[in-house]
Design brief:
about 80 residues
Length: about 80
């Protein structure tokens, strides 16, 4: 193997390690600065994002009807 190829292979190993470290740092910062605080605020506000808390009396499921209008064949044909 020529000297230039050995240098390039060594450099690529070093750069790959820096990339792994950089990814770990960026993902940690993303979680610590965005996801973590948003989760804590949501927990503190007792916000139910999925509306999974107790169902109304007599309701067998939490299904919500879509807001998009009727269910007919012509409407289905118009989708693009």
């Amino acid at each position: 193997m020529s000297l230039l190829r050995r240098l390039a292979a060594g450099w690529m190993r070093i750069v790959a390690r820096f990339g792994e470290v950089q990814t770990l740092v960026l993902l940690t910062l993303f979680y610590a600065l965005l996801i973590g605080p948003a989760s804590m605020i949501s927990s503190a506000a007792r916000k139910d994002m999925l509306h999974k808390r107790a169902l109304p009396e007599g309701e067998p499921s939490a299904w919500d009807e879509p807001d998009s209008g009727g269910h007919d064949l012509e409407r289905a044909k118009l989708q693009s």
